[in-house]
């Protein structure tokens, strides 16, 4: 039976995972981890299912425990999972080799511990006998009793197999397992970027299949080849990682209201509000990056001096070119042309790729120090002694 012919289970509807983050993370982890020949599906047979080359299936229910404890003895999520596994179609149930219950962050309960340990016939039989007692099941129709009853209604043979094949996995952070896979070959400072890229790649690939109404299953070998190609193309080990995210609007507004020199330099060429806001954001992020990179040893201070010298030289050459080719423009338009050409410059620092905003931000740092300017008369409008 091909995967496309498998029955769609009521508990697994392709597309529902799009509002959640955990399943794509687990999908990515397995695609990076399973043996060659395995495939991994999402929201087809279970939250995650691993299909080995011999036809065996590992079913995984992935539970986020940010609130509540899905590993507790009377957890409705736990008992719903057990009853759903016991209700699997025979063709799938007979192929099961593990029923995995994954919980993050770390959670535990007596029952899941007992289930995890009941991997032989005697232990499984004792546990099943316990489930059948009135004391364990509780009052009819109350709490998880209906789910326990549904599980038991599947029959002893089925229940015993679910118990024997039950496996609990719980960990603090699901991303850590992916980080460890990447840490062998990548620098630690770029791990989060590559983790995000890998998860996004897995998520995008499976979403594409869902949109095409195809079975949401990915081949692990093909995914790993694609990921390796991505790593070769985007060598984040040569990328200086931003030290901070975009500044808040109130931070930008506060700096604009104080009218530092670089803002007044842009105002002198009648920069738009959008350009001013972007310039302030670039300036703040660049200032934060320079301090952070120097502190952690990603760059040496002299490299920034060398970069500044190159930027000043580019500003001089571009200004001279514009004087020849755009001398007919009025000073504000001429100045905006100069700023855009300088801000769009791509230049590395110590052979490392800079974030897209950094050169523009550094130019604004230079403008704040009056080492460059955008108006043709910036030296007289903003003389050094006015600093």
UniProtKB/TrEMBL annotation:
Q: What highest taxon heads this organism's lineage?
A: Bacteria
Q: Where's the ABC-three component systems C-terminal domain?
A: 262-380
Instruction: Output the InterPro entries linked to this UniProt entry.
Output: ABC-3C_CTD7
This protein's name: ABC-three component systems C-terminal domain-containing protein
